[in-house]
Write a structure and sequence with these properties.
The protein has 382 residues and is mostly beta strands. Helices cover 9% and strands 38% of the residues. It contains three helices and 29 strands. It has helices at 3-27, 88-92, 270-275, and strands at 29-37, 43-50, 56-60, 65-72, 78-80, 101-102, 108-109, 113-116, 119-122, 131-132, 145-149, 154-163, 174-183, 187-196, 200-201, 205-206, 224-227, 229-233, 246-247, 259-260, 279-284, 292-298, 304-310, 314-318, 327-328, 334-335, 342-346, 361-362, 368-378. A nine-stranded antiparallel beta sheet has the order 11-12-13-14-29-23-22-17-20, with no helix packed on it. A five-stranded antiparallel beta sheet has the order 1-2-3-4-5. A five-stranded antiparallel beta sheet has the order 19-18-21-24-27, with no helix packed on it. The protein is globular and about 75 Å long. The two termini are 40 Å apart. The chain binds alpha-D-galactopyranose. Alpha-D-galactopyranose binds at residues 96-97, 132, 239, 279, 316, 318, 322, 342, 344.
Length: 382
């Protein structure tokens, strides 16, 4: 080819690539609707993020809750694969953290106490004698500021919240930002960041209950799970880690080879008895701060699969043990025991009282920043 022709060819190719990108970008969108008022008179909204392939996530700024997440099965059929409600009142009546952002400290802090720089802080005690998921009014129950954000590869929503010094007993004004992005590659990406004006502890996570066969469509015991973790943190009867990092080898906690969640859940193993199933933190392989694949789940009837990628050192596997049929969710579906599973990426529970665990202290002037991605795909696509 002559140089001029090569130039023309290159120009045409770049124009086509640009058009393709613009097209994808043009299709992804965010829309907003009212979702009702909280008891203290604040407006809650619901945002629908749609990507270029038609996958869709609905997020309310009340608790940063993902209320619905629709992704394709192997035939391209979209289904909602997270538990939740279609109205604010149901969330206000109380629920086990369906789809919410969890903070200031996700998971438990023993007896609701920790000491930082010689000062003891007393937190709300809301789970037996312990503090769970940020206390009585954690980040799952506050109204966040929300604004759609322009991104090149999908649709995004930015949520911000100023968590005041002393709220639920934590020190320091914590300025929190969570950006949810539904990418055009069917990933739900969650980018968490925070800064403080006084040294404090922070551990943010997300609490969606997934059922890849579709929300309300039976239990999750046949989902096959792989977790890239050689160890887990055994707990006492109150679900507080004992401090031991136990090898998963030879235990029902070995998911280093994909195994169904239900295969060993009823085994006579002390940790399963204490958690009434899986409700434990895995010590993820790989380096803290490095975004790496830590889990994969697949469901054979729908062909759906989900990978979890994170920068975090730990992940709680919760098998929906406390669901008991008393909650009726979207489409009138009744949520029975083990109808959903959570993979809550996090630091290990009770880290503020466990000097040997990776630290959850955020110092004044430093920036907390973690990323977690739930990536959806299908197996056996036609
Ligand atoms: C977390 C906890 C569980 C339970 C659920 C909500 O995942 O680890 O013990 O409290 O939240 O029911």
């Amino acid at each position: 080819m002559k140089p001029v022709k090569v130039l023309y060819f290159a120009l045409i190719c770049s124009a086509m690539i640009l058009l393709l990108n613009l097209n994808a970008y043009g299709q992804a969108k965010v829309t907003k609707e009212g979702f009702g008022k909280t008891p203290d008179g604040q407006d809650a909204d619901i945002y629908t993020l749609t990507n270029s392939g038609g996958a869709e996530v609905k997020i309310t700024n009340y608790g940063g809750i993902v209320t619905s997440l629709r992704v394709p099965d192997r035939n391209g059929k979209l289904d909602d694969i997270v538990l939740g409600f279609d109205n604010l009142d149901a969330y206000l009546k109380g629920h086990p953290y369906f789809g919410a952002i969890i903070g200031r400290y996700g998971n438990r802090i023993a007896k609701g106490r920790f000491t930082l720089h010689g000062v003891e802080y007393k937190l709300a005690v809301n789970n037996g004698e312990n503090h769970l998921h940020g206390g009585t009014k954690g980040f799952d129950k506050v109204v966040w500021n929300a604004k759609p954000r322009k991104v090149a590869n999908g649709a995004a929503l930015e949520l911000t919240y100023l968590n005041k010094d002393g709220e639920e007993g934590y020190p320091g004004n914590l300025s929190v930002k969570v950006v949810y992005t539904l990418t055009n590659a069917n990933e739900l990406k969650i980018d968490y960041s925070a800064t403080t004006d006084k040294d404090t502890v922070v551990n943010l996570t997300h609490h969606s209950y997934f059922n890849l066969a579709g929300q309300g469509n039976g239990d999750i015991l046949n989902h096959r799970l792989f977790v890239n973790a050689a160890r887990f943190t055994p707990t006492d009867a109150g679900s507080i880690p004992t401090g031991e990092l136990r090898s998963v080898r030879g235990t029902p906690f070995d998911f280093t080879r994909a195994t169904t969640i239900g295969a060993r859940i009823n085994q006579d193993y002390e940790q399963l008895r204490l958690g009434k199933g899986y409700d434990h933190n895995f010590v993820l392989n790989g380096k803290i701060g490095t975004l790496r694949r830590v889990a994969r789940v697949s469901e054979s009837t729908s062909g759906r699969a989900m990978e979890v990628w994170t920068t975090e050192p730990g992940m709680q596997l919760y098998s929906g043990n406390f669901l008991d049929g008393t909650l009726t969710g979207k489409d009138g579906k009744v949520y029975q025991q083990r109808y959903g599973f959570c993979l809550e990426t996090q630091h290990y529970p009770d880290s503020p009282n466990k000097p040997k665990f990776p630290t959850t202290v955020l110092r004044k002037g430093d920036r907390y920043h973690t990323i977690t991605i739930y990536k959806f795909s299908v197996r056996g696509a036609k």
